[in-house]
Design a protein that fits this description.
The chain has about 240 residues and is an all-alpha fold. It is built from 11 helices and no strands. The N and C termini lie far apart (about 40 Å).
Length: about 240
């Protein structure tokens, strides 16, 4: 399966609200005073810094990363970087806030009025596409969770929980209608997260075990077919006796 850019759907109203909230929190964390609008050059500089920080944080974790490392990867001086982000924590929180919005998007797209098996199959595919196309972001997110999510725990407890609660109700409704086998909807979602994100967080292990013959880009298509069979077979309602 050749690499391709993740297809981004038009943001829903709920997703747009979360993005607005994430931007507001990031702006508030960067400066207590009301900031002036950034110029085009300033926005470009911030983007360069954030891209460099993503590279450094995903490789070394938050504690193992330094402002000096980020400045070096960004190709700018440390004082210049500190002009835009006075603290390492501010860069990390900005990245995590934006990342969480992206991470929620595939689950946002699960439609209550759709066919359950089509919706779940599409969700598995979207999560695997993210594992393939955004491995650094996935590792950054995993590292944040392992540290207790200090920078985004409020967003997890509010935004993520609200979305999962909403989609759990969708899954339960499908089960009540006899369209899916009865199971715990929360653990179903957790299982999809765990199995799909594995291909980003443990990519080196996956490629090493599969070997040269099966460890190429085709591993994501193989994974998609397997996970579809695993989940959809288990969710197929059993005929009544």
């Amino acid at each position: 399966m050749a690499p391709k850019k993740l297809k981004v759907a038009e943001p829903s109203q709920a997703q747009a609200k979360r993005q607005h909230k994430a931007d507001a929190k990031a702006a508030a964390a960067s400066s207590p005073a009301k900031p002036r609008p950034l110029t085009r050059i300033q926005r470009e500089k911030q983007d360069i810094i954030l891209e460099a920080a993503l590279e450094v944080f995903s490789a070394h974790g938050f504690r193992g990363s330094t402002i000096d490392q980020i400045a070096e990867v960004a190709g700018m001086s440390k004082p210049n970087l500190l002009y835009y982000f006075p603290k390492k924590e501010e860069i990390h929180r900005r990245l995590m806030s934006e990342l969480l919005v992206t991470w929620l998007a595939p689950l946002e797209e699960m439609r209550a009025d759709g066919d359950p098996f089509v919706e779940i199959r599409s969700y598995i595919r979207r999560k695997l596409e993210m594992a393939r196309d955004f491995p650094r972001q996935s590792r950054l997110f995993a590292n944040e969770m392992l540290r207790g999510a200090p920078h985004i725990i409020d967003m997890i407890e509010v935004d993520l929980k609200a979305l999962v609660d909403e989609k759990a109700q969708v899954l339960l409704a499908w089960m009540d209608q006899g369209k899916l086998a009865r199971t715990d909807p929360y653990h179903l979602i957790f299982s999809i997260w765990a199995t799909t994100q594995h291909y980003a967080d443990f990519d080196v292990q996956v490629r090493a075990v599969l070997g040269k013959g099966r460890g190429g880009e085709g591993r994501f298509e193989d994974a998609a077919r397997y996970l579809e069979q695993l989940f959809l077979h288990g969710l197929t309602p059993k005929p009544r006796a």
